[in-house]
Amino acid sequence: MTRYLLRRLAFLVVSLFLASVVLFLLLRLLPGDPANALLSVGATPEQIAAARHQIGTDRPLVEQFLPWLGDLVTFSFGTSFVSSLPVGPEIASRLAVTVPLTLLAFVLALVIAVPVGFVAAWRSRTWYGTLLSGVSQLGIAVPAFWIGILLVTVFALQWRVFPAGGFPSSDWAVPSEALRSLTLPVVTIALVMSASLIRYVRSATLDVLGSDYLRTARSLGSSFFGAVWRHGVRNGSVPVVSILGIELATTFLGAVVVESVFALPGLGSMLTKGIAQHDYPVIQGVLFVSTLGVLVVGLLADLAQRLIDPRLRAGAVS
Amino acid sequence: MKRKVIVGGILTAVLALAACGGGGGDGGSGTGDASAQIQVGSLYEPSNLDNTNGGGQGVTEAFNGNVYEGLFKLTDDGKVEPLLATRYVVSPDGLTYTVTLRDGVKFHSGKSLTSADVKYSIEKVTAEKSQSARKSSFEVIKSIATPDAKTVVVTLSSKSISFVYNLSYIWVINSDAKNLDTSEDGTGPYKLTAWKRGSTLTLAKFDGYWGDAPKNSGVVFHYFTEATALNNALLTNQVDVVTSEQSPDALKQFDNADYKISNGKSTTKLLLAFNDKVAPFNKVEVRKAVTSAIDNKKLLSSIWGEYGTLIGSMVPPTDPWYEDLTKANPYDPALAKRELAAAGLPNGFSFTLDTPNYDPHPTAATFIKSELAKVGITVKINVITADEWYTKVYKNHDFVATMQEHVNDRDVVWYGDPTFYWGYDNPQVTAWVKQAEQSSTTDEQTALLKKVNAQIAADAASDWLYLYPQIVVASSKLSGYPVNGLNSQFYAYGITKS
């Protein structure tokens, strides 16, 4: 297990390095000049040259890349072209919105999806089993922003029980206020996320229910739920956990839409603004942190699978 | 967010300038609660807090007149008034301005204002690394002297009637101040208390203010990236006022007693700009034909409903030299056909219209295409990004016709520059523009620029499709807010909430 872990960590570092190269190069291949975005339309060629020099985009690629790599190692992420402010602290402050948003949505999605998916499988031939899987199918087709707008219309504009958007300027100083602001966005993401999760849980459960080992366990005298609990949950959760990892990562990246619907100062809105302004350090920084997040989640999902299923551990050792 | 062209600095943020206005909103009786904090909703978050470092229109909206003050101030209806200056004297040759500063002015840090601060502030705008859109207007400055703490003497290299007006854009900043990207040290009625990036910017009343205290205890600017979210915030009382509505469709929900909708004057013009140097637009008749073939009134109402105005030329009503020139090139397809025939193109022609890919350009381009088809002109729409526009059209002049928003006030003078992207070249207009800047009185300046305006309309130098509206929506409990938002400014000190 330790060797496996070390190998995975090495893989993570290599992936991050490759990601930093790709991010860096891709941005510079895109059309458009960040110096133009900094200046007003009347700028003279000299002013544009001066702006390029100031932000360093007139230097050879290697000389731009190495400082960026240095910034990555220290997590400072350099200085924004547009604001001349360090990118790192802003990413940290945005994460204080995006991470709780993603995690709360993830937990809520699990709370919804696991029982619903189980019932949909266990009672697949009843009308409500069919209804549950039908609704989840529908949920996959519905875009997040639409659910968001619907929730805002009902709970913010009509009933006035939650704010329509925004985040307290004091951040988490008053946690209840912050949570109130996050409620509708969390529900939005959780609903979208649970729709696809329900389908995975359902199909994993169907596999388990139709399995030989469950029938064997029952024939040896286990009750239905006892057998499901002792053998089914463990077997069924292996595929679900790997999907969970992917879902969590997708949600983290997809928060941008929801953040914009709810005017949340998260990582997503930072990224959109950075892109609009050609602010390379901001775009690179946000995407790098996102990549890191996705890789770490993937690693955790793998580890969780190994803890659940000893066969995977055995495979790794051999 | 909308991208605008500032031509004074030129094309930067077209909206920035367009939003000129005057303060004053609707009244501002004194019945409000002086302890109320005003919640303002806006789409324009500053990228930093220094307007010489590319802070954008958002920093002007939040800070101009509120946190920082100039020697002179531009009122919401476009007049220039003394602010930190009490008076100024111009030498007989028009080259030396001697400005006397107001007594008792303190910066937020406590230091008293001196002429050294004024010199520092002007030089900050004209410095080599300054990214101020106003930089080019101050190229006439030869030297700045500070004979005593209350006097600033500016010497110009040539006469500049706009100099005092231009000074209204310069914020007076404490020369000792540090980190102006994230903090401030101004003399305004408010000081900055917090800036949470991506979310809010908070201003509180400054107790040591030299003038009348604000009619509220402070202002919070709430920033949104999406107009619907901003409108929802107004509907749920999270904000009290929205500084600039960008779509008439959003207004229906505010059409009731709880809200007030004001239709102010903007300075943003939507232009169908021709390349006046290349065929067939090098012919006046062709430009006039295209202008007369497009029903601007119909275009305006399809985009802005009952809002916005037709001006027929480059000058908005808040500029002192405004004149209604909508009759110069009336909508008349029959006339358009006669002009085409006169130009030797009785069967029409076809051209490519470089269209920026953001609203309202694609919609307007489609409309123009169908209008021109009726007189035999075929339009090929070429959608381009803002960057491409800047490089292809603005820098390389590689286009036949394009569309753009020009946001600045007093920007008719660009028609006096034959090297400007649209290539309009009338030596008489160039001379008038130059004389106007050199004139001794504003009456003389006004008369000359009126001639310029009439001449460019007669030459159909561009087709000025329409002038944007400046729509402010506020809770009906609010009064005293600026409705014109001239050049994106938003004076908040007169706002009261009952």
Which architecture name of the largest domain in chain A does CATH use?
Orthogonal Bundle
N-to-C span of chain B: 32 Å
Number of strands of chain A: 0
Are there runs of chain A of 5+ residues with pLDDT below 50, and where? none
Subunit arrangement of the protein: heterodimer
- In DSSP terms (H or I, runs of 4 or more residues), the helix count of chain B works out at 12
* CATH architecture descriptor of the domain at 269-467 in chain B: Roll
Topology-level CATH name of the domain at 269-467 in chain B: Dipeptide-binding Protein, domain 3
Q: Determine the number of helices of chain A (DSSP H or I, runs of at least 4 residues).
A: 13
The first-level CATH class of the largest domain in chain A is given as Mainly Alpha
The geometry of chain A reads as globular
Keywords (chain B): Signal
Subcellular location (chain B): Cell membrane
Pfam families (chain B): SBP_bac_5 (PF00496)
GO molecular function (chain B): peptide transmembrane transporter activity
